[in-house]
Write a structure and sequence with these properties.
This protein is mainly β. About 0% of the residues lie in helices and about 40% in strands. The N and C termini lie close together (about 10 Å). It is built from no helices and 33 strands. The chain folds into two domains: about 45-190, Glycosyl hydrolase domain, family 43 (Tachylectin-2, Chain A); about 205-435, 5 Propeller (Tachylectin-2, Chain A), CATH 2.115.10.20.
């Protein structure tokens, strides 16, 4: 079988949870693990590059590449993949992009921090996605260690851009623009306010609340530290908390602050080292975008690596949930239509042998009225069962090597008609973060 290997693009999950603020309840989790999946140490930045009203998200990866997403106009909290290699830019490693019109000429500047310097690119023409290389030493970094991340803002509101560069000493260097509209910056201090980031470059600047004080969020091994200006337009900051909002950000979080849907509520994007990016949105009292429904649907609790799928197997209007776990498949059925409650039907569905790191999908592949059950196995092959009769819970074994597919290590099958041509596409995720089509 011909195999086309592509890099994994997006791993999307929905696991919504309320967040508690330092001063008040203020953030709700909107999307967890939404963008940048499959890359290591993703570092997001957001800017409307082509000025079309839809924000662009660039995510720098450990391998030096930059992923490009654009905001979905139908759902402003969602971003769609545009390219896995923005402008074919590849830096040494640990790409950390930041977009800003530094010289105010209407062309967006792209700064990309990497293992040993800050590289400068500029937009070729207004509203274009095409950028050209300008220089590989935008600011002198001297003996500053590797893993540089640039962030530009106007801290003191003096009309001069301020450049903050996080680096491998776990500190932040502060440069200030010499004159407005120029690329000239001078180093003001290599230890900006004593702000400490346990992972090099994992910080961002923005206004979280309505007090007109700039905030800096800095990543640590287990959360985000919050620093805030002592007074408006000051270059001095004070530590507010070691654990901003008690967010469960994972290791080495890389934050980015922006209002992505122009609702005057701050959105916070947090990427962690394993390639997962979560989105949180600030909310006001009595105003929430979404809340957590449950820690455990229907109280279902099986062993580790549970892999659920939901489908109405017997076509009775009640959804069935199959949950693979250890060596068996659990079968639950919805108690009533539209209910979150499921009851256990069987703790060994069809006596199907199941192994850890196996993954389920169930569809009528050949449109014969019988559901097909596929189980991606740890060693890359796919087991295939077919429903014995329409609406039956009984499935018969067909083959342990469906279509001679072998995507070692592990196979995670998903059927979907991607191009709406009437032919199902089989997408198979692989343990090493690749996808076969």
């Amino acid at each position: 079988m011909k195999k086309i290997q592509i890099s994994i693009i997006v791993v999307i999950g929905l696991m919504l949870s309320p967040i508690i603020s330092v001063t008040a309840q203020s953030f709700t989790e909107i999307i967890e693990y939404g963008w940048g999946g499959g890359v290591i140490n993703p570092k997001p930045c957001i800017f409307d590059i082509d000025n079309d009203g839809n924000l662009d998200m660039l995510i720098g990866a450990m391998d030096g590449s930059i992923l490009h997403y654009e905001q979905d106009p139908e759902n402003l909290l969602n971003f769609k993949m545009v390219s896995v290699h923005f402008n074919n830019i590849i830096v040494d490693e640990e790409a950390a992009p930041f977009l800003y019109d530094i010289d105010e000429d209407g062309l967006v500047d792209l700064l990309v921090g990497n293992s040993d310097d800050v590289i400068h690119y500029e937009q070729d023409s207004p509203q274009s996605y095409s950028f050209s290389f300008i220089t590989d030493g935008f600011v002198p970094v001297g003996s500053m260690p590797n893993y540089l991340k640039p962030v530009i803002t106007n801290i003191d509101n003096d009309g001069l851009a301020d450049l903050l560069v996080g680096h491998g000493f776990n500190e932040i260097s502060y440069y200030e623009q010499v004159d407005p509209g120029t690329y000239d910056f001078i180093l003001a201090t290599s230890q900006f306010n004593g702000i400490f980031s346990e992972y090099p470059g994992s910080f961002c600047a923005g206004y979280i609340d309505d007090n007109n004080l700039l905030d800096i969020l800095s990543g640590s091994w287990d959360g985000l530290r919050q620093y805030e200006q002592i007074i408006p337009n000051s270059i001095y900051f004070q530590l507010i908390t070691y654990d901003f909002e008690n967010l469960e950000t994972g290791n080495n979080p890389n934050p980015f602050i922006i209002d992505i849907n122009d609702d005057e509520l701050t959105d916070l994007f947090v990427a962690d080292e394993y390639g997962k990016t979560a989105c949180y949105e600030k909310y006001l009292k009595d105003y929430k975008i979404c809340t957590k429904v449950s820690d455990s649907i229907a109280g279902i609790g099986v062993t580790q690596r549970a892999t659920p799928i939901i489908i109405d197997i017997d076509n009775d209007g009640l959804l069935d949930m199959l949950v693979g776990s250890d060596e068996i498949i659990f079968h639950y059925e919805q108690v009533q239509s539209f209910s979150w409650d499921f009851s256990l039907i069987s703790d060994n569905f069809n006596n199907i042998e199941y192994l850890n790191d196996s993954y389920l999908d169930c569809k009528d592949i050949n449109n014969d009225g019988l559901l097909d059950l596929l189980i991606g196995m740890h060693f890359g092959t796919i087991k295939y069962y077919v429903q014995s009769s329409p609406n039956s819970y009984e499935f018969n074994f067909v083959t342990d090597n469906f279509s001679d597919i072998d995507t070692y290590p592990s196979a995670r099958p998903l059927f979907y008609d991607l191009d709406n041509d009437g032919l199902l596409d089989l997408i198979t995720g692989v343990y090493n973060s690749d996808i076969y089509h």
